[in-house]
């Protein structure tokens, strides 16, 4: 899509501000029935493609508000007793210790559903715009479907059971909102129906989206393929995940050479760095701020001294926290945690799928091609070489272990670990028992526990007829 830069950017900002104000007022006035989101579509006067684009360019709604409680529940960090006790909200405390009835902030549910509402509103408006074709029209429709599918997936990854082909047609899904009519209540349906809709949205988006975009907050065909690869991986459908990852990398496969970044900077990575395919992020919860979240020592120690990620991803704490480390390596270039799509993740998806298919050479090539860009060089007798030693094995199982180990280290705090735990816990060789200790009390999360499906926020349950997840 071509953009007349200054004029159109002013228009985008204008419409985004107007929409944000309307959402804010309506949310405060009438958020209490179904999805904690009650805007009235009849109040909108948007009627052009430019208006639709402005709705999708509302960065704070469409790119910056994805749920973080899966990451807060994961095992990459720990809290000191003092940090846990000082958390300002009980929801964060309960999430950290996997409390049986742990409550979650309403925003973990309502924020991605606001992106769904925007998407549905755009799709509704597009039905009234003629002609219903052309590159701009298709790009906007494709983006609306992409955002809707991506938002549904983020919600399902927390509030549905992990996808299991044997039970997906019975397990409760999430409400699949496809209308802006707030009086319509969608039931939860099933996990199978939920993932069918996610895949349908993303596949249709792929057909409509442009190959490239001048703005990485807007989705492209490459982003749709990356999203499909992530979704299929979460489902344990490794054949389709590998095919989507391969198709994605054939369109865009650039990796960032970490030797070229300032790894000692407070935030070494720019928001739209060359690896980023699509930019999205999660505001950190109080438990995940740099002051509170301490990286597990065993995880930090697993990075080699010559691995640039050790300094690019982490900073040393000082004072009473000396000897511990905080995360600083978000691809958002800020304290927000990147959860969009980047080529490093896609390489790792393809490598895992190759390994699971017994294609050891291909799996190790993808893994080594990625990691050599993360390692320091050394110069001996005037000859510069990498310090990286390639992974080598003749065993597919060992190769898979290599990939999964590096996946955790590469994709730390990307909103991916919780989904990985949910799917890998079904394989005994990769399942883990999570443990935490607070004020002398020990807490454990066994593999496949019901608490791997978070409770839907209390306000949503009390103001709707949908069922709560079991405990």
Q: Rough shape? A: globular
Strand residue percentage: 5-15%
Low-confidence stretches: 1-34
* Biggest sheet character: 2 strands, antiparallel
- Following the backbone from N to C, one meets helices and strands in this order, namely HHHHEHHHHHHHEEEHHEEEEHHEEHHEEH
Report Rg: 22 Å
Please give the count of helices.
Answer: 18
| Helix fraction by DSSP (H/I, runs of at least 4) | 40-55%
Distance between the termini: 48 Å
Describe this structure in words.
The protein is mainly α. It is built from 18 helices and twelve strands. Strands 1-4 form a two-stranded antiparallel sheet. Helix 9 (191-208) packs antiparallel against helix 10, helix 10 (221-235) packs antiparallel against helix 11 (238-251) and helix 14 (343-356) runs antiparallel to helix 16 (396-410). The longest helix has 26 residues, at 5-30. It is globular and about 70 Å long. Residues 1-34 have low confidence and may be disordered.
Short description:
This protein has 471 residues and is mostly helical. The protein contains 18 helices and 12 strands.
Keywords:
two-stranded antiparallel ribbon; mainly alpha; about 475 residues; 12 strands; single chain; 18 helices; disordered N terminus
